[in-house]
Each structure stands twice: as C-alpha cells, then as structure tokens.
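Note to self: keep these together.
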Amino acid sequence: MMNDIIADGLTRIRNASMRGQEVTTLLHSKLMEDILKVFEEKGYIEGYKVIEDGNKKFINVTLKYDEDGNPVINEVKKISKPGRRVYKGYKDIKNYKNGFGTLVVSTNKGVLSNDEAYKLKVGGEVICSIW
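Structure:
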C-alpha cells in the first residue's frame, strides 16, 4: 500500500520529464490537484485534466518542453514528508533558487506558491520545490 500519493505523483512527473514523454498519469487527490494548479500557473507544465474511470479518479498531466525539446522541469523534490513535516514562516520562503525556483506551500489560504504566500504574509507547510 502506498502512503504518500504526493511523493508518488512528483516522482512520476520527474521520470516522465526525463524520458521526454508528453503525458503522464497520476493518482488523484485534491492536494495533488492544487499542486498541479501552482505548477501550471508558474509555467512548469502545459496543463492537467482529471479523468474519472468508474469510481476511481486519475490526473493526466501534459508536460512542457522548450523549443529544443529539453524539459522545463529541472528538478522537483518533496520537502515535507510523512515522517518529518517542514513548516516555514512567510519571511523564510521569500526566494527560492534566486527567484528561478518555486516552493509550493500549504497555508490557511490554500495551496500557494512561495511568491503568493509572501505577498499575503502567510507561512505554512512547505510541500515541494520545483525549478
């Protein structure tokens, strides 16, 4: 049985990106959907679509590549894990990779990128990083 759907989804995105695949399929969760919304807003993926198959749900993620065929995603990493949760205040999440990367933060205002969380002056659990 798999305990961490988010880590599995990020690994599937990382592997598909390294192999040059157009689309990858993830297991559905509301949190994963919110994370993908941040990825899409920041331009790391083309888009995503929720697919219902009977009583199961999946998410098809369309990956993004530059004009040379290189993946836009260089690295995607889970930060907060089931055994060790990582919380940061809004001052600690201002910049990531000198503005080239993005932290995905779960706050009381929803799942936000580090830029939005800093503007709203809210901290929270740092779910993952991408650049």
